[in-house]
Amino acid sequence: MLDRVDYLQKIRPFIGKDVIKVITGLRRSGKSVILEQLCNEINNPNTIYLNFEDLHMEHLLNYTALHDYVCKKIGDSKKQFCLFFDEIQEVEGWEKTINSLRVKFKADIYITGSNSKMLSSELSTHITGRYVEFVIYPFSFAEFKQINQKHTFDEYLQYGGMPFLHSINFKPQESKKYLKDVFNSILLKDVVKRNKIRDVDLLERIVNYVLNNIGKQFSATSISKFFKQEKRIVAPETLLNYLKACEEAFLFKKLTYQDVIGKKALNVNEKYYIADHGLRAAVSGTNFNDQEIILENIVCLELIRRGYTVKVGRSGRDREIDFVCEKNDEKLYVQVCYILSEEKTIEHEFASLLDVKDNYPKIVLYKESSFKGNYEGIPAVNIEKWLLKNN
């Protein structure tokens, strides 16, 4: 079991404090393991740990039943209890129980869930300012290597970072089946069931469209036109709602555009990236057919893991910067390419970054290259080395 050090370090300052620790993220990305690691690290003898995906907990899937159960366990004790609730969204009306337990007892509360809407808007309605949220992602490449140094970057490109794959030693057939099952579970439990979606066929068609257009700009209107050609009339508003439901399940990450010259947001098409590129490979086909897009996807998620707010940049002469990243007072401009060798390719990849005249760092990441060093002061860095660098 890998200690997910970066996440644990972020959570530790809040241990024992009167705020609810909310651990969210994609289904099967490792939230339960982090919850177990926290439970073991705190090692409080007064602990209640419940996993609501366990069938034995079925009698507690109602807020009053759960509330009565915990109250009975704590009784009249004045000691601080640690409460760990895994996949809390399975409990109907769970937020009422959490709010009551926080008020009623001296409780240190940790909850996990797989939907950002449920664990943000609903929770904030009942407990404004009384929670902190930590989003968990599948393994980064650094974690992928940490769990086994023999793992290669090409393996990561093919399979992605879903933690369980290590347990089955990345066997191709078993890995593909597992990833497909996870993908279907996300759609069924965290999108369809959560949002009471009736037209599942439409949802699947929209999701397949996005999977085939990862890293490409498009809009709800363009998807609507595509479906019209397929003899299916779909309103852009419906498409937006379905895409938002997928975002809330942490399946996709939407990036908006920013004018890096005029320093303003642009109301144009968006780009979508998937939370784990291995899921896409299992559902839509091998990642080796479009490695540049997969590299972009990996870099996008890595930048988000490192705490950046990420957008797509538009520079002079309508040129695009893959990622414009901001964190506190920092800013970073990033271009991603597969092969950086031919002079025309080199000029193209650096051109949009050279359009930006500020003094913030700029970088071009590549997988293969005969070009070394920097281009007019902008460094070119091997993507594998960059992913393994602590930041």
Put the structure in a nutshell.
The chain is of the alpha/beta class and 391 residues long. The protein has 15 helices and 13 strands.
Structure, explained:
- There is one protein chain.
- This protein has 391 residues and is an alpha/beta fold.
- Helix content is 42%, strand content 23%.
- The strands form two sheets. The chain has an eight-stranded mixed β-sheet.
- The longest helix has 24 residues.
- The relative contact order is 0.09.
- The model has no long low-confidence stretch (mean pLDDT 92).
Q: What is the count of helical runs? A: 15
The helix/strand class is alpha/beta
Encode the helix/strand succession as letters: HEHEHEHEHEHHHHHHEEHHEEEHEEEH
What is the CA–CA distance across the termini? 23 Å
Taken from the alpha-carbon principal axes, the silhouette is globular
Secondary structure tally: strands: 13
Largest sheet: 8 strands, mixed
Strand content: 15-25%
Helix amount, in percent?
40-55%
Output the radius of gyration.
22 Å
User: Uncertain segments of ≥5 residues (pLDDT<50)?
Assistant: none
Residue-averaged pLDDT: 92
Strands of the largest sheet, in order across it? 7-6-8-9-10-11-13-12
